[in-house]
Design brief:
The chain is built from seven helices and ten strands. The chain is α+β, with helices and mostly antiparallel strands and 325 residues long. The structure holds dinuclear copper ion (CUA).
Amino acid sequence: MPTGVRRTAIATLVTSVVALVATSIALAGNAGFGPPPAHSPNAHRIVQSYIFVSIFTGAIFVIVEGALIAFIIKYRRGKRPRNADGAQIHGATRLEIIWTVVPVLILAAIASFVFYKLPGIANAPKAAAADQTTITVEGHQFYWRFVYPNGATSFTTMVAPANQVVNERIVGLDWDVNHSWWVPELGGKFDAIPGKVNKTWFQAPPGNYLARCAELCGIQHAFMYGHVHVVPRAQYDAFMAKRLTPADTYALGQEMWQGVCLACHRLSEKYIGPALGGNPLLADEHALETLLRQGQGKMPAVGKNWTSHEMNALVDYTKQFAKKG
Ligand code: CUA
């Protein structure tokens, strides 16, 4: 074997061994190779489809790579001259029929399985009105706003009732860009497109589920996270009711500050936008509202559709940062 070829062969072998070891370690902890554990019937069906497809793709991978390695060893040049031709073969009808029919059968099996699972992914189970709720999910640059049936709202964290059907209306705002609402443990991705309503649902046990924006939507897209906080129904009802009362104003303002303002600003240093600490605007309700509703320069109109209750709540919270020092 010439030195160059040997060096390449050794390098390839070492790389492959390292890759295989790394992969087995990564697989042991899932490491993002597979979907996270499902906590909603539709997410379960997505995971089942993923596993079903993986069985075929995994088998094909092993067969193809195994044959490749076996052929490399079995048909290596050995002592034959470098320019010796192999045997010339033309046509192999039986083989050609097999490699046409088998993939067709595999694709048919995958399609049948997915179409069988699909209705249970797309359609929520039938539930009495008392056992379900509808929450609107709004995608904004760069935060999520949730609107509840009683008009209450929350930012970044959705509160939802446990073990009941939660219908989600995912909407985009006319003045904003496309986002995509994705809670991997509770189902698939749904785009928030201006002017369109997309619908999905989940039914989950109590827990805290990570959401993220899955559509490149601007400079802070990578940080556009959210959470779905699933709690017992009574706690959900209490949250919604309290949200509209003055007792919750400060908490709402703090949530808005952390979820919306801090996405692009910091108090004491320039981040995406200028530092906010000591800015008198933070205590000037009228001026702040104008800025939030209309945007300015590179700052989008982040609060264009906020209620006056929300505007009050934010100023109530931010006024503490308006004075220097
Ligand atoms: Cu919103 Cu990416």
